Amino acid sequence: MLSRLLKSPKPISSLRRLSLTTQKNVIFKSFAKAVPTPSGSFAQYMMKQMWKHYLRDPQKTAIVNVASPSQKMTYGDIYLQSLSVASFLHQNDFRHGSVAAVVLPNCCQYVPIIMGIGLTGGITTPASPIYTEAELTTQFNDSQAKIVFCLDLFLDATLEAVEKSPSVKKVVVLRAFPDSIALPENPMVIDYLDVKKVIPETDHSMIEINEERDMFILPYSSGTTGAPKGVMLTHKNLSTTVVNFDHAMAHDVFGDFDPPYDGFNESQLIFMPFYHIFGFGSLMGALNLGATIATMPKLDLELYCKTVQDYKIRAAMVVPPVMVAFAKHSCVDEYDMSSLEILVSGAAPLGKETIDMVKKRLPNLKHVFQGWGMTEVCMIATIPSLKNPTKPDSVGRLMPGFEMRIVDPSTGKSCNKNEIGEIWLRGKQIMLGYLNRPQSTAECLDDEGWLHTGDIGYADDTHQVFIVDRMKELIKVSGYQVPPAELESLMLTHPKIKDVAVIGIPNERKGEVPRAFVVKSGDVTEQEIEEFVASKVAPYKKLRGGVVFIDEIPKSPAGKILRRVLKEQK
Fold first, then answer.
1. What mean pLDDT value characterizes the chain?
2. Fold of the domain built from segment(s) 474-569
3. Phi then psi dihedrals of residue 563, to 5 deg
4. Measuring CA to CA, which residue among 264, 128, 124, 120 is closest to residue 204?
5. Three-class SS of residue 457?
6. What's phi and psi for 59, nearest 5 deg?
7. How far apart are alpha carbons 449 and 36 in whole angstroms?
8. pTM of the full structure
9. Which CB contacts under 8 angstroms, 24+ apart, belong to 498-501?
10. Which of 40, 127, 269, 333 has most Cβ atoms within 10 angstroms of its Cβ?
């Protein structure tokens, strides 16, 4: 259906208006019932879950850094260390509503730090450890962070940012290695080893939490389409997402595992950054189930494949760059990945062609699914289902608790099934808004609670959702709209193209035309690529903007193509 709509001789805007006169407000709802969610503090709920896991198996590994396997923690370790972090924070005048910035790569200590912050009624604002001093300064000041947790390897940039951030009172430093260099003699700097020694002394269960209004986490959006903004996510947002996500994955996605899926006895491989909502949500979901979490500070494909082999990973959450690597990288053949039965890809659109290539490389795969979400919906909004099979290019159906409208952006009227428009969402997982940005909040979150996602897509007759592209990224060629993701998916089938990104560039006659930035994996010319695409698409989708060869496609940590970077260098 998608290819037929996009190759129609009429512009998409015309297609969208076909039935507007007969449809007023077409609202799609989830077929699945929502799971009862815990009330009150999300941190308190998670602490109870982890204590339960500890009692079930005191020796069970909760999380391990596979890049340095001696770094691991049990659920009991996490529980006790979380209480120490919370007491340390309380001793340093960190209270309900205070903000702590966590500037760390994936590591075992990430969990007790965010739990300790949450137990005080405080808010975690996660940031990338490779942020520059300017980027950290912006986030520290915008969030009014009071305490910063960082790694010693990135301490210099952190302290430079702290000097320009009056709200920050303490910097807690984690050591990358036991024999790391001595910390600077600075009254603001505290060794995390000392934090771990704090004896818990405060009853944090007495702290009152307004689950609907109090923030648990304040992630900053990636900025792929603009400046990063603090996304206010509440305790209710997190609890609703985590329990429904875990239930849906266990019953709908992993339903045909043999032996049956058991979260407590599974190992989950999470490489996505914990400071990104995809990684953070996956981490919380795995902790809720009591799984053993294998993580790594940054993506290393060879280590990833080895971990699948060593931990017998049966299902994995991935992003498109990993799928492309599975399809094309030689190291996939060097490890036994036969345990892998299901892959679920998110964060950016994934073409059917890439899925087919991955299935050929990993013949034991039963399913490759796609999900869809964003920071503003607390990770995920749609999910696939084995009970109601999804089409390869679908991102599944709505998660429990969500409502959806497809809206013509030019008229504001609802679209019917199979008509393309902007996706709007409503539900208990939707953010409060953007911190300190009432205008930006009003632009995407209306008075009726609908989040205007900026993603273009449609729902078919069975309520499966299909994502076409970001509204701001569609290339407008003579009135026709060309989704970059469609051309990228096609070009990745070329044996000599390793990676690709497509943007629109100005054209006096047509408005915009597509240009491809290509990473080669063999000897290929611009003309060969242009002819390859021209032979497979409608005339208005041809690469009339040309082909540019580059060494690497710029991407966010979540795998989204940073098209703004390409537009700046075109």
1. 88
2. GMP Synthetase; Chain A, domain 3 (3.30.300)
3. -65, -30
4. 120
5. strand
6. -95, -5
7. 21
8. 0.83
9. 498/324, 498/328, 499/321, 499/324, 499/552, 499/553, 500/553, 501/553, 501/554, 501/561, 501/563, 501/566
10. 127
Q: Do domains 1-30+403-469 and 42-233 have the same CATH topology?
A: no
Instruction: Give the residue-averaged pLDDT of 518-530.
Output: 94
Domain borders along the chain are 1-30+403-469, 42-233, 474-569
- The pLDDT > 90 percentage for the chain reads 60
CA distance 36 to 38: 7
CATH T-level topology, domain 1-30+403-469:
Luciferase; domain 3 (2.30.38)
pLDDT, position 544: 94
pLDDT of amino acid 351: 75
* Residue 13 pLDDT: 36
Helix (H, G, I), strand (E, B) or coil at 135: helix
Q: What is the pLDDT of residues 47-80, one digit of tens each?
A: 999 999 999 999 999 999 999 999 999 999 999 9
Token pair of 94 as six digits: 């960190």
The beta strand positions in 414-477, using DSSP E, are 421-426, 433-434, 451-459, 465-470, 475-477
3-state secondary structure of 508: coil
